[in-house]
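Quick illustration, no need to memorize.
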Amino acid sequence: MLISHKEQKFVFHFGEMGSRWGINRTVGQIYALLVVNKKPLYADQIAEALSISRGNVSMGIKELQAWRLVHVQHKPGDRKDYYSALDSVWEMARAIFEERRKREIEPTLSILRDLLLDETHDADGDQERYAEQRMTEILELLEMVTQWSVDLQKVKPDSLRTLMKMGAGVTKMLKK
């Protein structure tokens, strides 16, 4: 399967960015390839387009399925699995934000809560109170951001787009 130069640049850049966002470079490339393809692709097509092994494709697809970012489809009379990305970029963003919240923010919230509930005390009480205050501030911030993201997950894409445009205007006002 051949992809255009433009598509290839996008796919490879997305893979590089993915590695900075905490996902495997190959997984990022697989997802980008699915995003820009009009028709669902099967594993051998993905492997050929990206010059990677079929095994890498299988592992990448499993990772994308765990993130709920791909659909599996079947065609009558064809035993192959065909994969496609979510149709809406808004749904993609929602799935990514939700999974990152579960994998990154929730464990941090849990640890902070446990640490702040811990009644043991070390020798330097002043330092410990300072550390607890800072942890409390971080916990409060993360809880607010988490609640905000949960609330945003419920907003329809058109309303979210409007809200984001309003946010840009509010930011400009606040800078004055």
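The chain has a mean pLDDT of 90.
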